[in-house]
Amino acid sequence: MPRREPPGAAGPLPEDDFFLPDLCAPRAVFFAVLLAELLVLVHHLADSVPRPFDWQALGPASLFVQWCVLLSSALLCALRPLLARFGLPFVTVVALAVVATVTAVSSGLARLAYPPTLEAVQAPGWILRNVLVAVLLAGIVLRYFYLQQQLVRQQRAGLQARLASLRSRIHPHFLFNTLNSIASLIGARPAAAERAVEDLADLLRASLREDEQETTVAEELALCERYLAIETLRLGDRLAVEWAVDDAARAERLPSMLLQPLLENAVNHGIARLPEGGCIRVVIEARDGELRLSLVNPVPGEGGAGAGSGEHLALDNIRQRLAALYPERHRFRAARAGDSYAVAVRLPLHRAR
């Protein structure tokens, strides 16, 4: 991964972390047109006092400003992949030079196109004034883009720290429960305990890879099978799992350590508290542009032992991770329905390459 220069450095800026946005995007074009028109309107309102508002002059002025703004945006959009290779000072100078050149050429053409009777266009220094105003406003806009990019960097760094904190809360919870299961097997079933230790080693190797925030459904299922193998040694026939996994969903990506904590929650707060045990039903499918996961497990009746804080902690951790990774593109529901507890997760499809 290429090293990123600190803010204000003169080194090259990666295109995916470039402070100059894509000015060809529909949203950017819309706001450019809107802000340019508001600027022209404010100028004419201020210039018309105490004279009547000149509606006839508003049209040509709007056409001129919109032309300069859109042409400058189009040129900067075309130059963006090239500018992303250079440092901040060079990019700023080039962007201001593009705006100044477009404004100067457009102002010169306007003087030739408009009749000499139009005093505002034919006034001495009109071209220079337009260039200075355009460069000043462009500098303000570039400064805004730079500050916006720094804010995105800070939010991204905070997100990574938050995800690391949430993952670190899940790891000890998973580890302690698994070690307790192994400890209960050492005296009576040493061979089973040895296999459990091997499964635990594989689980820890997978769960402690902090450099991988995402995994595939197939890899997550393999992780869950190792966990269930350990819990089966503790619970025996009381634990049963029914899988319904869509083959098309196995290659999709999802946050790592997502399904395993849900299974752990279902086992510890559902199956383990029932003397007769029960069956956990897991459904994973890819449909309508979404990866859908649902997990249903039996729980003790209303008069039985209630859910502990660990259950809420695990679900809250997952809810916060999903909110950080997919702010507006996910759904997470967890609720009790009679003697069952259901968790449903929906994520945008993201197939592994």
Describe this structure in words.
With 353 residues, the protein is of the alpha+beta class. It is 59% helix and 14% strand. The strands form two sheets. The protein has a five-stranded mixed β-sheet, covered by helices on one side. Strand 6 and strand 7 (340-348) form a beta hairpin. Helix 5 (126-186) packs antiparallel against helix 6 (190-207) and helix 5 runs antiparallel to helix 9 (309-325). The relative contact order is 0.07.
Q: How far apart lie the N and C ends?
A: 18 Å
- Helical amount among residues, as a percent range? 55-70%
Q: Specify the number of helices.
A: 9
The total strand number stands at 7
Task: List unreliable stretches of 5+ residues.
Answer: 1-15, 303-309
User: What is the makeup of the main sheet?
Assistant: 5 strands, mixed
Q: Give the overall shape, derived from the CA principal axes.
A: elongated
Summarize the structure.
With 353 residues, the protein is of the alpha+beta class.
Which SSEs are present, and which pair or pack?
Blueprint (H helix, E strand, L loop, with lengths): L25 H23 L6 H29 L4 H26 L5 H4 L3 H61 L3 H18 L6 E3 H19 L3 E7 L7 E3 L3 H11 L8 E10 L2 E9 L10 H17 L5 E7 L2 E9 L5
Parallel strand pairs: 2-4
Antiparallel strand pairs: 1-3, 4-5, 5-7, 6-7
